[in-house]
Amino acid sequence: MALSGINAYRKGNLKQDIANADPHKLTLMLMQGALDRIAYAKGAMERREFEMKSQYISRVTAILINLRDTLDLKIGGETAENLFALYDFMIERLNEAHIKNDLKMLDEVTNLLVPIRDAWVQIPEEAKQEAYEAQRQKRQAV
């Protein structure tokens, strides 16, 4: 009973965090959510809880598809194209890890995603605000 209360509290906090987050923070939350779910999938795989493993890998895949599909390839140029290809590769590795029950493939995806998340954290506040303002102006012009 107490656990369901804690989970409800966490979900409420998450909804509040999402409602108050800027695009940079949302992307960071998605990346961290993917990393967390990879860890959960590994645990489920080790415990041979295949249904849970499947659910976690499916969630990570959905997050990576979202991150990939929100890249602006026109503005981001080569960097965005490289990230697009990297996200595609990670999705493929997740699918292989799921089929083969391969922990090393999950670790590989983690090792690819962590530096992206870490670089995202390092973006200066001024650059975030500048990008957010440019995006806002772009939406108003449309």
TrEMBL record:
Family annotation (InterPro entries): FliS (IPR003713), FliS_sf (IPR036584)
Highest taxon of the lineage: Bacteria
Record's GO cellular component terms: cytosol
SUPFAM superfamilies documented for this protein: Flagellar export chaperone FliS
Compartments in which it is found: Cytoplasm, Cytosol
Entry keyword set: Bacterial flagellum biogenesis, Cell projection, Chaperone, Cilium, Cytoplasm, Flagellum
NCBIfam families: fliS (TIGR00208)
PANTHER family assigned to the protein according to its UniProt record, in alphabetical order: FLAGELLAR SECRETION CHAPERONE FLIS (PTHR34773:SF1)
Protein name: Flagellar secretion chaperone FliS
Native organism: Alteromonas lipolytica
